[in-house]
Amino acid sequence: MQATSHQFKDNVKRAMGDAELQASLSKIKNGFVPKRAAAAAALPEFETLRDEARDIKNHVLGHLDIYLERFTAEVEARGGHVHWAPTAADARRIIIDLARESGARTITKSKSMVTEEIALNDALEQVGIEPIETDLGEYIIQLAKEPPSHIIAPAIHKTKEQVAELFLRHHGRYGKTQRLTEPTDMVREAREVLRQKYLDADMGITGANFLVAETGSIILVTNEGNADLTLALPKRHVVVAGIEKLVPTLEDASTMLRVLARSATGQEFSSYTTLVTGPKRDGDLDGPDDFHIVLLDNGRSGMIGTEFQDMLRCIRCGACMNHCPVYNAVGGHAYGWVYPGPMGAVLTPALIGVDEAGHLPNASTFCGRCEQVCPVRIPLPRMMRAWRTREFERGLNPTGQRWGLGLWAWFARRPRAYRLLSRTGAAVLGRLGRGNGRFRRLPLAGGWTGVRDLPAPEGRSFVAAWKADGRPTAMPISPTQGTTGSTKS
Known about the structure:
The chain contains 23 helices and 12 strands. The chain is α/β, with parallel strands linked by helices. It has 3 domains: 1-33 and 316-397, Fumarate Reductase Iron-sulfur Protein, Chain B, domain 2; 43-298, 3-Layer(aba) Sandwich (Rossmann fold), CATH 3.40.50; 399-468, no CATH class. Helix 3 (46-62) packs across helix 12 and helix 15 (341-352) packs parallel to helix 19. The longest helix is centred in the N-terminal third of the chain and has 23 residues, at 19-41. The chain is globular. InterPro entries: 4Fe4S_Fe-S-bd, 4Fe4S_Fe_S_CS, FTHF_cligase-like_sf, LUD_dom, LutB/LldF, LutB_C, NagB/RpiA_transferase-like. Keywords: 4Fe-4S, Iron, Iron-sulfur, Metal-binding. Residues 305-335 form the 4Fe-4S ferredoxin-type domain. This is LutB/LldF family L-lactate oxidation iron-sulfur protein.
């Protein structure tokens, strides 16, 4: 996928003007959000599980080399093969070599964001191998030749009418002549088309929700069962996963699974939770003859030990974007690369560079809802601020923005000058805006007034009201409060 993160503002304008997209995005706040809240409320120990999940991932990241070695040894002891891919290009090369070695002409795939990250489908098509997405959402966007707009609901931006039109256009060779109108009929038709694809595939590719170091197993979580057919029917199964997907034990995996589905879709558990440990053994009725795991780094190891390490705790549930007011307003394609929403605003600059993706960490209201609902308590707002700092330090911001920030900083370091400027500015704007109480245009504020009115100041400032009511001018520091600003979570 060609990154357009640097065109975020233009992408946003198109998204805001797309009436069909805006209608589709309403499905998020009316679906995922209340379901997640209900699932969390129904489990008394949910907050404790979040703490445990965070601690499990922190432990793994602190000992990642040990767990990678253990996982590799367990996979190989059970007849599997592990391949190391430092970059996306390495991963593509390894997978294409495995496909050619098995004589593959068609490959079935289950939904995998990491294969989107390495642009695998395009690479396979360029060498004459047909990839077939089997997750319904991924299948829809493959027909539309579009990237996913959400990490768990890739076609959430599509209306049922758009899907019906896609099916009519692409399924005509199967004798289809009428446009469908009901979602259940569309699902049935997709199953009929894909059924033979499963049987004909020469190789199957899946991702992995978790990699278990203790047993060398992978864990796949789906609601359609397509991953099970993808891995079990072809002779060769290839797993592509980031190195951060490790958990130490099956018990730890159980903890992660208890927060994953509740955070993602509001289910207690997804419909299918599949453990795969190596290739088919003697006496097994089904399963692949060959089992390969491609472990992708692609910049992840470079995040270890930095202020962005916490991002590697992410379990790809999508809760942050479901609750994000920015994502809900513009959708996933506006972010211009594989990972949208708050998690993408942190991860994308780490993987493709802040010079390419600097707009994304700036596209945040810092309302904190993403961190509030994250099942592994990732401090996403803090890391977005860290990217903004790096962007400023490298001089990547527009000149006007840098000048404005520098001027504000000068006043902020001089409280008396800051208070004088605030009082004077508020008084002047209050008088100028007295007529209708707002400004439609204002010099140096075009970023705001271009899309909304600016209220005119009125009444006292917060500080003035605070002092007038006899409140203390500074909050006392608790004796138990640290001086570093760090918190447990």
